[in-house]
Amino acid sequence: MKRPAPRRPREPTIALINVVFLMLVFFMVAGTLAPSQERGIDLVETADLEGRAPPDALVIMADGELRYRGSVLTSASAYLDRPDSRPRDVVRLMPDRALPAADLLRIGAELRAAGVERVVISTMRGQE
């Protein structure tokens, strides 16, 4: 009589699949928590700079139009008159790549004249 072949122990693949699925769900949720950028804007590219994500930035389109959270503003000082309670000593700008530098300087000067201490310009990190 033949002996039955010894069975190999089962691998815990179900546990591995569960861990991978939970990681996938975590990264999907974490990726949707950050506010998205305005549509139709190409950021200026820079390299070797340390930066942070701009959660509440004043977006400047290529034609000079100012937007904040999807709404169009009439002037840079109108950004400071927003009803939220965020500090107004530092303002983040997200200019379009095609925006003329003179317009960017004019908007920065307008913000400084309105009492802003620091104007931070957000750019896209360049390829190294």
From TrEMBL:
The organism's taxonomy opens as:
Bacteria, Pseudomonadati, Pseudomonadota, Alphaproteobacteria, Rhodobacterales
Q: Which domain of life is it from?
A: Bacteria
Report the protein name in the record.
Biopolymer transporter ExbD
Per UniProt, the keywords (alphabetical) are: Cell membrane, Membrane, Protein transport, Transmembrane, Transmembrane helix, Transport
Please verify whether the record's keywords include Cell membrane: yes
Transport among keywords: yes
List the Pfam families hit by this protein, alphabetically. Answer: ExbD (PF02472)
Main subcellular location: membrane
Name its cellular compartments: Cell membrane
How does the protein's chain sit in the membrane according to the entry?
Answer: Single-pass membrane protein; Single-pass type II membrane protein
GO molecular function annotations of the record: transmembrane transporter activity
Q: Which family does it belong to?
A: Belongs to the ExbD/TolR family.
Gene Ontology CC, one term: plasma membrane
Give the transmembrane ranges: 12-34
Q: Which GO terms describe its biological process?
A: protein transport
Q: Which organism is it from?
A: Seohaeicola zhoushanensis
